[in-house]
């Protein structure tokens, strides 16, 4: 860690060189702009963002913060599962009314998803789950198979896969029996683990 005076030029002298993924770069921007790091006229920052699990200057690599609409069904539960499993295991999720998503995203320096007119939303016949897979260039065959199930459940193409209608039904049931979106998220993660395992078996069998 180093202390950067507000009027000082930014000087970063890392001890090591790392190749950053897009989400790590965004996390560094968050770290540099997070109001919680400000005190006594100085901004405390890590001198370099490194892969999670390492500590440099007593600051861990920052987790990403994501924001979406509340009262989640399919995509807004499936996407957090995807993000935690394949992008950032420490990611934080915020659910707010649709009208507040973009303003709160700016305030929280969070990445909006599954809302209108954002990169990680619906495009054509694809859903937000697809958008995240494409954005982060995820190539896992089982995950790509799983994406078809999620797409069918979250869009009008309910017969895209034999499993899609079932997932949509379960999503409605989980939402109805959950206290809030975070409770719903916690309850459904194991179900998405099972769907992924099912897809991995399907891919391995070649069927």
Question: What would you say this structure looks like, in words?
Answer:
By secondary structure, the protein is an alpha/beta fold. The protein has 2 domains: about 60 residues, no CATH class; about 110 residues, no CATH class. The chain is built from 7 helices and 8 strands; from the N terminus they run E-H-E-E-E-E-E-H-E-H-E-H-H-H-H. The strands form 3 sheets. The protein has a 3-stranded antiparallel β-sheet with strand order 1-3-2, with no helix packed on it. Strand 6, helix 2 and strand 7 form a beta-alpha-beta unit. Helix 2 packs parallel to helix 4. The longest helix is centred in the last third of the chain and has 25 residues.
Percent strand: 5-15%
Q: Which structural class do the helices and strands define?
A: alpha/beta
Could you say which overall geometry the principal axes of the C-alpha atoms support?
globular
Helix content: 40-55%
Could you tell me the radius of gyration in angstroms?
A: 19 Å
| Mean pLDDT across every amino acid position | 79
How would you sum up the major sheet?
3 strands, antiparallel
Strand order of the largest sheet: 1-3-2
Number of domain modules: 2
Q: Which regions contain 5 or more consecutive residues with pLDDT less than 50?
A: 1-61
Strand segment tally = 8
Kindly report how far apart the N and C termini lie.
Answer: 52 Å
Q: Helical region count?
A: 7
């Amino acid at each position: 860690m180093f202390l950067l005076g507000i009027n000082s030029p930014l000087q970063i002298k890392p001890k090591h060189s790392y190749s950053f993924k897009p989400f790590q770069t965004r996390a560094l921007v968050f770290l540099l702009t997070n109001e919680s790091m400000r005190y006594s006229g100085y901004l405390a920052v890590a001198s370099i963002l490194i892969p999670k699990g390492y500590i440099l200057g007593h600051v861990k690599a920052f987790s990403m913060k994501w924001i979406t609409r509340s009262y989640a069904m399919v995509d807004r539960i499936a996407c957090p599962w995807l993000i935690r499993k394949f992008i950032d295991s420490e990611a934080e999720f915020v659910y707010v009314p649709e009208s507040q998503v973009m303003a709160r995203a700016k305030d929280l320096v969070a990445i909006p998803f599954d809302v209108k007119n954002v990169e990680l939303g619906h495009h054509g016949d694809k859903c937000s789950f697809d958008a995240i897979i494409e954005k982060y260039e995820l190539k896992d065959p089982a995950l790509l198979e799983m994406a078809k199930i999620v797409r069918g459940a979250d869009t009008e193409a309910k017969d895209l896969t034999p499993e899609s209608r079932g997932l949509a039904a379960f999503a409605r049931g989980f939402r109805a029996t959950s206290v809030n979106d975070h409770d719903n998220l916690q309850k459904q993660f194991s179900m998405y683990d099972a769907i992924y395992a099912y897809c991995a078996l399907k891919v391995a069998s070649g069927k």
